[in-house]
Amino acid sequence: MKELIERIKKDGVNLGGGILKVDSFINHEVDAMLMEACGRELAKRFRPVNPTKVLTAEISGIAPALMTAKFLEIPVVFARKSKPVTMPNQVYLTLAPSHTRGIMNDLIVSPECLQPGERVLIIDDFLASGATIFGLERLAQAAGTELVGIGALIEKRFEEGRKKLENLNVPVESLACIISMNDGKIIFDE
Amino acid sequence: MKELIERIKKDGVNLGGGILKVDSFINHEVDAMLMEACGRELAKRFRPVNPTKVLTAEISGIAPALMTAKFLEIPVVFARKSKPVTMPNQVYLTLAPSHTRGIMNDLIVSPECLQPGERVLIIDDFLASGATIFGLERLAQAAGTELVGIGALIEKRFEEGRKKLENLNVPVESLACIISMNDGKIIFDE
């Protein structure tokens, strides 16, 4: 998606070690109009697989997932990293490593929000190693739902998450695909 | 806002102790279309004060703040509860008690995202004791910005946050105002 790629070229910062700083428009400050455009595009790509629910992980997944859900006119569930008092005691919980923090995060979904038979579309900000997305996929599976697609704003293809996700046999889409971040550069697959 | 009040009447659960469970449409599973309608209404109410940036706190503030920002066509910043590696070492940090967890949360904003002279609109899911909103107000003040308004989806007027916020001399708006949760009921100011 040209608009997102141009914005990464303009405001994204390669911090080294494969870390892309996009917190001036995606991760901390969010460009609401750009996010809406991304949601519109992701919704367009996944409408053919008829999702009934979008699933994401707090925190940075919420904005793109919400906008995608809005265009698909379906609800979005965000997996929590800690269990609020309002959640039932019996939950689906899995662990996923945090890419930028070097720790393991809980990913928790209430059974009230994911019902057997639902068609789940996973949306996140990044597709890198795929660890968070695999965590969400395990939750979707535990809840007896059917995974129908995986979408991300930004893919780091050099981390090979996509390759591992191929076994899931669902469409995987990203709006900006980075093939290399070597030598301080950001090279896109355009 | 009638649509939100009706939804709380239908799907909100009074858990006792002043805790309202809304995680089937706001806090965990999010009704994206309802959230868009809430954002449209909040944007309409605050357009006259000309905000240049929406400020909220992760996690549950992100959805209403993003939708409000979209209609105002301005960016949104969400204060983080922990500092990602992509954030500079020098940040604005304050502490705010978590209503439903009984702990203190960090609220962190990068100086890159809040610049002196900006007109800040604070949006959150709940206005209860006002503790999170006061935390955001301290961050806005530390950054040299001007606070121009405070909006929430749901107000618990019996917790008196609004009364304390009056000293800030900015408009305070909520879309659903609850005046009592005694005896398992949810009584609105309609």
What report would you give on this structure?
The structure is a homodimer of 190-residue chains. By secondary structure, chain A is of the alpha/beta class. Helices cover 28% and strands 31% of the residues of chain A. Chain A has five helices and eleven strands, in the order αβββαβαββββαβαββ. A six-stranded mixed beta sheet of chain A has the order 5-4-8-9-10-11, with helices on both faces. Chain A has a two-stranded antiparallel ribbon with strand order 1-2. Chain A starts with a helix and ends with a strand. The model of chain A has no long low-confidence stretch (mean pLDDT 95). Strand 5 of chain A pairs antiparallel with strand 3 (29-30) of chain B, so a sheet runs across the interface.
Top keywords for this entry?
homodimer, six-stranded mixed beta sheet, globular
What is this entry, summarized?
The first copy, chain A, is built from 5 helices and 11 strands; from the N terminus they run H-E-E-E-H-E-H-E-E-E-E-H-E-H-E-E.
